[in-house]
Amino acid sequence: MSGKYSANVFVKHEESQCCGAFKLRGVTNHLKSISATQRKKGVITASTGNHGIAVAYASKLLDANATIYLCDNVPQNKVKIIRDYGAKVEFVKGWCLEAQDKALADAEKYGTYYIHPYNSATTVCGAGTLGLEIWDQMKALNVKRIDAVFACVGGGGLLSGVSTYLKSKDPSIKFYGCSARRTPAMYECLKAKEIVTIPPT
Ligand SMILES: Cc1ncc(COP(=O)(O)O)c(C=O)c1O
């Protein structure tokens, strides 16, 4: 990639992170910030897969009773991983927003702690540890300046955390959120300057 773009490109391999994504960072921050009693009472979340896997895994380690709300189209292999870690799964008809609405309503009803996949300061702070690692690793490699960081964007938790940390170190670093063409929700919302609903493809 460095040759192709005539730049020094570094890749942070979060796919080889435990649970296959960066999600464990925010989830662990949530579970460590609540009491053991609350963890036992229950934690709840909605997910399209990766976040649910991280909540299920961390809940097993930290002795929390986790329930993961999933929409129908979550791949079966991810459902199995979540169940194998011992979390309860609730399916919700529709798309991920329907799963999120139902999970939020049930968290309120049963007094369980909701672990938001992206729209929470605790989630964002956890994701910020990735920014800290990028900064420290670049220093260790004697890289003088970071010009730009590219990160996948769904709800924006990852990019918010990474950019908040790195901007505090060097405000000139540029950040680019990358979405697959099939899932342009953040792009369309920013373009419209309001939250818009993108029909599932
Ligand atoms: C592998 C991967 N990368 C990026 C994202 C986007 O993260 P965020 O919702 O914090 O923008 C997700 C969200 O599910 C993900 O699973």
Description:
The chain has 201 residues and is an alpha/beta fold. The protein folds into two domains: 18-114, Rossmann fold (3-Layer(aba) Sandwich), CATH 3.40.50; 121-192, no CATH class. Helices cover 48% and strands 14% of the residues. The protein has nine helices and six strands. It has helices spanning 2-5, 24-33, 36-41, 50-61, 76-84, 96-110, 121-140, 157-169, 185-192; strands at 43-47, 66-71, 88-92, 113-114, 148-152, 174-178. The strands form two sheets. Strands 3-2-1-4 form a four-stranded parallel sheet, with helices on both faces. The protein has a two-stranded parallel ribbon with strand order 5-6. α2 packs across α4 and α2 (24-33) crosses α7 (121-140). The longest helix is centred in the middle third of the chain and has 20 residues, at 121-140. The radius of gyration is 18 Å and the shape is globular. The mean pLDDT is 96.
Question: Descriptors for this entry?
Answer:
201 residues, alpha/beta, Rossmann fold, 4-stranded parallel β-sheet, two-stranded parallel ribbon, 9 helices, 48% helix, 14% strand, globular, binds pyridoxal-5'-phosphate
Task: Please give the largest β-sheet.
Answer: 4 strands, parallel
- List low-confidence stretches: none
Overall CATH architecture of the largest domain: 3-Layer(aba) Sandwich
Percent of residues in beta strands = 5-15%
What class would the helix/strand composition place it in? alpha/beta
Q: CA-to-CA gap between the ends?
A: 30 Å
Number of helices: 9
Which strand order do you get reading across the main beta sheet?
3-2-1-4
CATH first level of the largest domain = Alpha Beta
The percentage helix is: 40-55%
Ligands (ions, cofactors included): pyridoxal-5'-phosphate
Instruction: Write the H/E string, N to C.
Output: HHHEHEHEHEHEHEH
Determine Rg (CA atoms, Å).
Answer: 18 Å
Count of distinct strands? 6
| Domains, number | 2
Mean pLDDT: 96
Dominant shape: globular
- CATH topology of the largest domain, what is it called? Rossmann fold
